[in-house]
C-alpha cells in the first residue's frame, strides 16, 4: 500500500507494511462516506466470516480487510452514507462481470477539479482498466474524487466543458486555491495482478502505481487529497520482470482514473 497527499482515511493498513508479519488479505474495501464509510468493512468482514474466510485464531475467524475512503459528504445529503449493511450487500452482489463505472458505488458522490472552488467541480466516479503483457495480467479499479483535474496523456482536460481552464495553469499564474486547507477529496484504488509477488514487491508496486495517479490527475497528491493505492497478487501466475509489471500498473491506473471521469 502507498499513501500520498495530506488527508488520507484508512483502516487496517499498518499491517500491510512489509516488516509486519501478516502476509495475506481477504478483501480490500474502497468506500465513500468519509470516515463513516470505514464501517463498510464491518459488513465485508461479516460476509467473509460466515463463509469461513479469514485468519483462524483459536475458535474465531478474523478476516483481514483494509479499507480506504473518499470524502463526498459535500455532495447530496451528508446523512446518507455507506455502512456495514452496504458493505455486506456489495459482497453479496459481487460477480465476475465488469463493475459499473462513473458515479456508481463508492464513486456516487465523487467530484474532481474543485481546488479553485467547489462550484467548478465536475463529476468523478469509479473507473476500471486492465492489460496483459509478458504472460501476466494487471487490473486496476479507482475511485476518483480528486481536488485536481483529470487529464489525458497530453495533459488536456478529460470531460470538461469547452473553455475550462486547467487548475495548474491558474496556480502558475498566481491564483490562490480556494480549498487549499480543506480535506474534501482523494483518489483511492487497487492494482491487482496474477503475477506472483512477495509482500515487499507488492508494497513496491503500490508505490509505483501512484505514478498512474500523478499521470492522470493534475495536480496530484495535494494536502486536500489522501491518495491511497493498494497492490495485491492472486499468486496464481508466474514470476515476472518487475519493471514490466510496474510499467503496466502505471498505464492501467491512469486509464482507470480517466475512465472514471469519462
In short:
The chain is of the alpha+beta class. The chain contains five helices and 14 strands. Strand 9 and strand 10 form a beta hairpin.
Question: Can you put this structure into words, describing what you see?
Answer:
With 262 residues, this protein is of the alpha+beta class. It has one domain: L-amino peptidase D-ALA esterase/amidase (4-Layer Sandwich), CATH 3.60.70.12. The chain has a 5-stranded mixed sheet with strand order 1-14-12-10-9. Strands 2-6-3 form a 3-stranded mixed sheet, with helices on one face. The chain is globular. The two termini are 26 Å apart. The model has no long low-confidence stretch (mean pLDDT 94).
**Coarse morphology:** globular
What top-tier CATH class fits best? Alpha Beta
The largest sheet is:
5 strands, mixed
> Do you know the CATH topology?
L-amino peptidase D-ALA esterase/amidase
Radius of gyration, taken over Cα atoms and rounded to an integer in Å: 18 Å
Distance between the termini: 26 Å
User: How many distinct folded domains?
Assistant: 1
SSE succession: EEEHEEEHEEEEEHEHEEH
**CATH homologous superfamily name?**
L-amino peptidase D-ALA esterase/amidase
Structural class: alpha+beta
How many helical elements? Answer: 5
Helix content: 10-25%
Return the CATH architecture.
4-Layer Sandwich
Total beta-strand segments = 14
Low-confidence stretches: none
Mean pLDDT: 94
Indicate the proportion of strand residues: 15-25%
Q: Identify the strand order in the major beta sheet.
A: 1-14-12-10-9
